[in-house]
Design a protein that fits this description.
By secondary structure, the protein is of the alpha/beta class. The protein folds into 2 domains: 2-116 and 267-280, Rossmann fold (3-Layer(aba) Sandwich), CATH 3.40.50.10330; 123-260, Sandwich (Tumour Suppressor Smad4), CATH 2.60.200.30. It contains 6 helices and 18 strands. The protein has helices spanning 14-27, 53-59, 69-81, 109-113, 184-187, 272-280, and strands at residues 2-7, 31-35, 47-50, 62-67, 86-90, 100-101, 117-130, 133-139, 142-147, 155-160, 163-169, 172-176, 200-205, 215-217, 222-228, 235-239, 245-247, 252-266.
Length: 287
């Protein structure tokens, strides 16, 4: 099996655990792919290094991401572009999307045995314009529209399949997938949604209304959001926590289910609700 390893070496002990992972995978007869930028860090190991990141992902059978949830999400978006499954190893804090902790590397033998499942996760497609150029981006977790730090509170108009359904005044809006329902949306008061469902969750952030509630839209929904200010102000769009994009006043941002999905590798016999209870149940984990 050809396995691309994508570590986040800024995490504490990430290099150590990546080396242990590579040793285990080599022991099972796997071929390890990594980006050439890691060559100095892992020069003593049996690894094929790639200058071309896309070629590496295209050539592998599976991706293993080591880091926190952000690392796994970032890797999953690349994996989805080439329809490759991704296995997350938690070297972060919460690690909600991770399948393995660093003391569970014995489970990796199941990869060599073919004893694993792939769970498909919906992605969200976002269509917007940046500096007059039309762009489309896919997100595994969420897209967030948020007012600038010193901006007045904006109004957000939401259209559903071409018709206005609601207006919000507040700090922002979160549009998330079921996978993202346990991320920022949950902190903003949104519900937990089983990731096997296909739907779009709209959660307002600090809405200036007592009657505002999150709304769940079906898988065929096409949503659009426009932002209006009574004075001068800025709104930014972020997708899966990446670099924010400044949105022009009155610009229409479209959101809908992507044709792409992410394949999450499952090695252990547990379900989504086991993970919810383990990661979020006692309230002591840092997100």
């Amino acid at each position: 099996m050809n396995i691309a390893v994508l570590p986040n070496l800024s995490r504490e002990k990430a290099q150590y655990y990546t080396a242990r992972l590579i040793e285990r995978l080599n022991g099972f007869g796997s071929h390890i792919f990594m980006q050439s930028k890691f060559q100095d860090d892992f020069s003593g190991y049996a690894i094929h290094f790639f200058e071309d990141f896309s070629e590496m992902v295209r050539s592998c059978d599976l991706i293993i991401a080591l880091g926190g949830d952000g690392t796994i999400i970032h890797s999953a978006r690349h994996a989805a572009a080439f329809d490759k499954p991704v296995l997350g190893v938690n070297v972060g804090r919460l690690g909600f999307l991770a399948e393995l902790e660093t003391d569970e590397f014995d489970e990796l033998e199941k990869l060599a045995e073919g004893n694993y499942q792939i769970e498909r996760r919906m992605m969200l497609e976002i269509h917007y314009a940046e500096n007059g150029v039309e762009k489309t981006c896919a997100a595994l977790n969420d897209a967030v529209l948020m007012r600038g730090t010193l901006s007045p509170m904006p109004d957000f108009r939401v259209d559903f399949n071409g018709q206005t359904v609601c207006d919000y005044r507040g700090d922002g809006l979160i549009l998330s997938t079921p996978t993202g329902s346990t991320a920022y949306s949950l902190s903003a008061g949104g519900p937990i949604i089983d990731p096997q469902l296909s739907c779009i969750l709209l959660s307002p952030i600090c809405s200036h209304s007592l009657l505002t509630r999150p709304v769940v839209f079906g898988p065929s929904a096409r949503l659009s959001v426009q932002t209006h200010f009574r004075g001068e102000g800025d709104v930014f769009l972020t997708m899966d926590g990446e670099i924010p994009v400044k949105i022009s006043r009155g610009q229409k941002i479209e959101f809908y289910r992507s044709e792409k999905t992410v394949g999450i590798v499952r090695l252990k016999n547990h379900n989504f609700y086991d993970i919810v209870n383990e990661k979020l149940g006692d309230g002591r984990n840092d997100a």
